[in-house]
Amino acid sequence: MKTFSVKIPSGIRDGEKVRLLGQGKQGQNGGKNGDMFIKINIQNNHKFKLQGYDIVTDLYLTPWEAALGKRINIDSIDDTISLYVPPGIQSGEKVKIPQKGYKDGRGSRGDLIAEVKTVVPKKLTQEEKELFEKLKVISDFNPRKK
């Protein structure tokens, strides 16, 4: 068994191969060794999904953050980004952060796409419940009416 240190080029795509010259099987009749090929498998994780050169992530918001807007921090694959979420953003909408996606191998990058998911608390305090009840009474918003 041998151990190899392999430099994976930025922007390598799923299914592409990295070639290690002379590290393959021994040559026949005293010939030189063949090459070894390492096939790259890029897997999505719980936080990021690769779609072409774009990286998609979920952006979880509370109902009041979605309604009122807010500046929040989200993670990219390189760093943390301060992102302004505009008031009235809807669950399912996407916010695009240019040039924060996957490298394309030619000096450019895809985008980071943050998909909004509005999350409602499962358990409410008494005060929160009262505020939602009050909102129900004073608001004429109905998403089922067009």
Task: Please characterize this protein's 3D structure.
This protein has 146 residues and is α+β, with helices and mostly antiparallel strands. The chain has two domains: 42 residues, no CATH class; 74 residues, Sandwich (HSP40/DNAj peptide-binding domain), CATH 2.60.260. 13% of the residues lie in helices and 29% in strands. It contains two helices and eight strands, in the order ββββαββββα. The strands form three sheets. Strands 3-4-8-7 form a four-stranded mixed sheet. Strand 5 and strand 6 form a beta hairpin. The chain is elongated and about 90 Å long.
How far from one another are the termini? Answer: 67 Å
Radius of gyration: 24 Å
Put simply, the count of helices is 2
Strand content: 25-35%
Q: Give the low-confidence spans.
A: none
Which outline best applies?
elongated
Give the H and E element order: EEEEHEEEEH
CATH overall fold name of the largest domain: HSP40/DNAj peptide-binding domain
Can you give the mean pLDDT? 93
Reported CATH architecture of the largest domain: Sandwich
Strand tally, please?
8
CATH-wise, what's the superfamily of the largest domain?
A: Urease metallochaperone UreE, N-terminal domain
> What share of residues is helical?
10-25%
Largest sheet, spatial ordering of strands: 3-4-8-7
CATH C-level category of the largest domain: Mainly Beta
What layout of secondary structure does this protein have?
Layout: E1 17-20, E2 36-39, E3 49-51, E4 54-61, H1 63-68, E5 70-75, E6 80-85, E7 94-97, E8 112-118, H2 126-138
Parallel strand pairs: 4-8
Antiparallel strand pairs: 1-2, 3-4, 5-6, 7-8
